[in-house]
Model the fold of this input.
Amino acid sequence: MSTRDKLPLWIFASACKHFNDAITGIDVFTEGQTRANIDKSDWCELRIDGPWIIDVSRDVIQVKSEINVLIGTVINDANMYQESLNHTKIIPAFANFKVYKYGPASDAENDGTCVGAMILEPLRDNNQRVEVARFGQIDPAIRLLQSTIEGHFRMTIFV
Done:
């Protein structure tokens, strides 16, 4: 397989490692993992869209990906700021990160070497790098606030 074919795996694995290492003080899951007791403690879930691969010129590609983190905050009547405190644990993780050839060890091409770096891009406003969206309490029967933090990343590489 070519580098182009492997990029989705390498970006996904590298993003998971980066965000899992960077987020502390709250349980981190990756989309699709089983979450137990989600209404008993605060948690966040990493969700990765893309990558979208664009041919810039011969042997040069640009890769774009959107990463968002869904946050579940148990409603705490004693601390109405808990959701904002959880955001402060996650926002710093939205930073440039290196993409490594991570994947199943059975594939010799997944040797851990660096492919490039995903760069955090501005959103609508050139000064805004991440967007926080608060959805509130989705289900009145479950004392849980939900919100997301989203960032867009780009990498240009020679193939």
In short: The chain has one domain: 3-158.
